[in-house]
Structures
1.
Amino acid sequence: ASQVRRDILRMVSGAKSGHPGGALSCADYLVGLYFSVMNINPDNFTMEGKNEDVFYLSNGHVCPAWYSVLARRGYFPVSELATLRLLGSRLQGHPSVAHDLPGLRMASGSLGQGLSVALGHAYAKKMDNDSGIVYSLHGDGELQEGQIWEAAMFASAHKIDNIISAIDYNHQQIDGRVEDVISLGDLKAKWEAFGWLVFECNGNNIDDILNTVSQAKQHLFMEKPIMLLLNTKMGYGVDFMLDDCKWHGTAPNAEQLKMALEQLPETLGDY
């Protein structure tokens, strides 16, 4: 996760644009999923993902974290991370399916759509008697979109119980704190009222993430969709970015990058 955070910062700083704050807050969850939880085959990626687990990133602006995890997991060369946001790159500023990037099944960035797509894939897997699980990740600010709640109703009404969705609950969005823009209220109670099983964890602690996902998986195929509330901090890992909405969409300059990298140990080697 430390290496992924280094990748995020170097990618966004190199591109001089991007969204580091949310990418830093969800890095631990993505690392946990791809390296310890999901049944996947990076060497033979298919859009259908038959009989394996699949993942959908709905809050597409945090894609630097996802790109890093995909590369480090073997979906494409780590060296390609240096091409973030370059013209013609497969690593667009929001995920794009136009360039056939392994690991990516939908374009995202128009917030609110990812849960509908993830549920569609989960429903298809149930119809095909496919053993794979669908995972999806969403931003808390994204929950202000109405389509999310339409999808939430669809999931419980159709007893889609082969999905584990998660919310990066860092309480920050581009214009400030989520509670100050449009408060989400009691989020756990809200999802439970929509018919979902809800689990909470420290989304910046790998052990807590893995233990909570393990608990959640014990409740799959019991006629209820599952939601994880990941309690995180925007900018996690870098003290001057921590819990500050300024870093939702601001790229660090060279000096800020140097200060940030000094706080994050290099574990796998930079690209």
2.
Amino acid sequence: MSVRKTANDVSSDLKIHEAQCAERWRSMFKKTDDLQGSVQSMKTWLLAGLTTIIISLMAIIIRGIV
């Protein structure tokens, strides 16, 4: 036969659960922020590369016309 939990037992369990969940959320937010920084960095590099390619193609086209 199982022993019934008291209100104090449930309250104690909930406090432990809330502390664990809060730590998990902090960890997830930190990882998400790190990921967002990496994506922003890649976006910047890709935009710079695309700009370089477009300018190079324009220079080749203009030199071919003149």
3.
Amino acid sequence: MIRVENLSKNYGSVEAVKSISFELKGGQVVGFLGANGAGKSTTLKIMTGYISPSSGNVYYGERNIQEDTSDIQKDIGYLPELNPLYSEMIVHDYLKFISEVRGIPTSEFKRSFQRVVEECSLNAVAHRTIGNCSKGYKQRIGLAAAMIHDPKILILDEPVTGLDPNQIVEIRQLIKKLGKEKIVLMSSHILQEIQATVDRIIIINEGSIVADGSSEELLDDSAKGKAQLKMEVSNADENDIRDMKATIPSIDIANIAKNESSTEINLEFLSSSDPRADIFNYAVSKKWVILEMVASKQNLEDIFRKLTGKGNLS
């Protein structure tokens, strides 16, 4: 188990991370999300022993990252956002170099190499110079380097950057498989990818944890028992639209947007009720032409924007 306790990091007067705490357990893939400057990458660098915290600590079982840095790093596979590769080296030679740095005996390298080449689909470029590989292959080479020593913990900062849709699916399946055996913490700017891959999501904003739970839990908590309904109608008077709540008290009118030939209406209501029949009958009584009426749900992007006020991740 990994335990992050009251972790803070200051750069001069700037508080990049503000006394955050969370725990990670094996058999779980956790997504770590944050907007530009939120403190996400700083947290990952502290967790890997790359930089030191201003206060607080990270515990790996009974060991802590400040006192047992080298020992803990042996158990971590880390893929940073800026993937460090030696472009003049052949893929095989680079992975052999990394295995030597990781202390893998020469007698065991062949087996380790074959494992990561297979898992990361690198057979086609295993004997190619890294500089001549595509961005997608370079990302997979970085992932293979993070996995070469079969670590207990994987920390992946933007692991699917530069991959095409087919490659993303392959890496997603690999990460989910690894998550059954290891502790996996990953970040990604692709919100749909996070939702499809992870078991749990932690969102950090301006150095503080603002959400922690499964995507379903975050969606339920954000909605607070409310459902949404989107309508598009024509021949509707705005006063009649606003009067609809008086006739149907269970609804709230969230937004009215008038277009050239129609009006969009966003409604909210308790998910335990279903006012659609009443809404339809009201529209008929006012002689509206209903062009669309569809229930809508919040997605992870809606929640992210609500909690951070931003739409870009880093």
